[in-house]
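BUG: 3D viewer hangs when loading the predicted structure for this chain

Environment: internal workstation, default settings.
Expected: structure renders.
Actual: progress bar stalls at 90%.

Input used:
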Amino acid sequence: MGLVRTRLQVPALAVEGADVVIVGCFSGKQKDFAALMDTAAQEMTRRGARVVGRIVQRRGVSGGGAEKMALPYSSRTLLSYGKVREAAALCEQTNADAAVFLASLTKRQRRVLTEILGCPAVSLVDALTAD
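Structure tokens produced before the viewer hung:
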């Protein structure tokens, strides 16, 4: 008997009427992150979604140096472990229909984040082109 793996399918997001959490991951050098979050929230609202929460992951300049600033904390989730837990708690508390990431997500990231967050994880671009 072999190990049977099942793949979690991430459903397409119907934006209109959806409760969403906006998630952004930004370099510590990026000063306009709040405006980018606001723009994403406005765009989702304009498409008929309700923004029920926001999560921001800031990556400051540390001992790792500038070359690591553009890299995510985790290639699986884009975020640090603590921030993923915070996002999962917010998604659960708000009964979010989706977590919308400002960054592009790979198929693996969408799958892993969907499983951890308990709701579909989608990139902003994908959410806006879903209709």
